[in-house]
Structures are given as C-alpha cells and as structure tokens.
C-alpha cells in the first residue's frame, strides 16, 4: 500500500483529494495535517465524507510517507518545505502554483515536473516532485495544446472561461458570498490571470515558434463547482 500524507487538509482541494484517496485500493492516508483543526474529525470540516471515514486532523508529521500532497495556499508550499525535511524517498505533489514555472521549479536538489498528465505522462511517472497545474490552466491547455503540438497556432488565441465559487477557496471575500454570486456573472483579472504563465510556458515548449498572445478573460459564475471554457483560434 502507498502511504500518503496531506498538508493543509481543511480546504476544498484537500477535501476532494481525501475523497479520491480513501476510495483508492492501493492508498492509505497516514495523516492529514492541519494546525487549525488538529484533533477534529475530518468529516466535521468535509461533511460530504460523513460516514465514509473516521480520520482525524493532526498537527504531527510523519517524515517517511511514500507520497506527500501539499494543499496549501499559493506561496506557502515552498516555505513549508523549507521548514520541514522529508525522506529522500518521499514523492511530493504540490497543488499550489509555487513550482509550476521553470524558473521556480528547482527546490534544493530536486526539480518539480509540471503535472499535466495529458501533456507529459511519461515524465510524471518518473518524477519525484510534481507541480500540479492550475484549474483554468488545465482546461485551457487541454483545448489548445493539441494544436501547438501540430505547430498550428499562428495567431492569437482568445479564451473565455467561467469558474464556480469553490475555485476561490474557503476564505471569505465579498465576491464569494451567496448574495454576490447568486444570479450574477462577473469578470476578473482580464488578460492578467496568474495561470497565463504556465499556459504560455507549455505552449512554447510544444511549439517553439509560438509568439502569439493568449487573451484570457476569466469569469465568476453563479454555481459552486466546475469550469466552462471556450478557446477560439
């Protein structure tokens, strides 16, 4: 059995990861680390797991797990790894954006591999450190990377995408409240979204003469989960 540890277990990303792992025949969750919820039942926070697990959050680490998932907020994964040492045999999968770009992919003696399975499945199989791609980045790249692989993108790519409220995480903000989201549709970070960096990176790797723009307008939808994405070329 693969022994897994999860860091930052109270957020939406961790909740979905826990659900997947507890139903995986070859994985056992060794610990779910959360300083704010230590001692509390996981199902108290992730109530959709009520009746499916008796796991409890902890503030104790096992540095010898087979695989470690980092479900921390953006910018926190690197600082966590700098403060905590894990076995050289532990594979690390980061779900934040800390290591996705090539210039930030190196950590100590290891290099994070960009974890878009459809793009570089074989490299991921061999990797010891994986940087999971962003949500918008995944949807957009699955649409346009096949064109880049065939060297077909010669003009700007226009992308319009809509995300549900869970994409913003569990922290409250004015734009995540029900009264804002309900019957509402709004754009944000037009042409400047943080996922553009990794999108342009893989496009350039797939099509070396790519020098067009990805004109991306992200939107907030009035639903909880999922992404709808249109990419026009």
TrEMBL record:
InterPro entries: AGPR (IPR050085), AGPR_AS (IPR023013), AGPR_dimerisation_dom (IPR058924), NAD(P)-bd_dom_sf (IPR036291), Semialdehyde_DH_NAD-bd (IPR000534). Its EC number is 1.2.1.38. It holds the Pfam family Semialdhyde_dhC_1. GO terms for molecular function: N-acetyl-gamma-glutamyl-phosphate reductase activity; NAD binding. The keyword Endoplasmic reticulum does not apply. Transmembrane segments: none annotated. The keyword Oxidoreductase applies. One of its GO terms (biological process) is L-arginine biosynthetic process. It comes from the Bacteria. The active site is at residue 135. Keywords: Amino-acid biosynthesis, Arginine biosynthesis, NADP, Oxidoreductase. Residues 3-127 form the Semialdehyde dehydrogenase NAD-binding domain. Signal peptide: none annotated. This is N-acetyl-gamma-glutamyl-phosphate reductase.
């Amino acid at each position: 059995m693969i022994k897994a540890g999860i860091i930052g277990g109270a957020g939406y990303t961790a909740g979905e990861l826990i659900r997947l792992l507890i139903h995986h025949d070859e994985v056992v969750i060794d610990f779910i680390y959360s300083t704010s919820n230590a001692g509390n039942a996981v199902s108290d926070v992730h109530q959709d797991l009520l009746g499916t697990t008796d796991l409890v959050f902890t503030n104790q680490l096992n540095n010898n797990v087979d695989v470690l998932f980092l479900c921390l907020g953006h910018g926190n994964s690197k600082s966590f790894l700098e403060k905590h040492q894990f076995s050289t045999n532990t594979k690390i999968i980061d779900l934040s954006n800390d290591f996705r770009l090539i210039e930030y992919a190196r950590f100590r003696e290891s290099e994070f591999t960009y974890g878009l399975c459809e793009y570089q499945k074989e490299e991921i199989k061999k990797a010891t450190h994986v940087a999971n791609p962003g949500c918008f980045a995944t949807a957009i790249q699955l649409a346009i990377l096949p064109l880049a692989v065939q060297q077909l993108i010669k003009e700007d790519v226009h992308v319009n995408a809509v995300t549900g409220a869970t994409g913003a995480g569990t922290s409250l903000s004015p734009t995540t409240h029900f009264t804002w989201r309900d019957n509402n549709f709004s754009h944000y970070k037009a042409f400047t979204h943080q996922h553009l960096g990794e999108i342009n990176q893989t496009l350039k790797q797939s099509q070396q003469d790519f020098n067009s723009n990805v004109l991306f307008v992200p939107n907030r939808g009035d639903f909880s989960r999922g992404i709808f994405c249109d990419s026009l070329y």
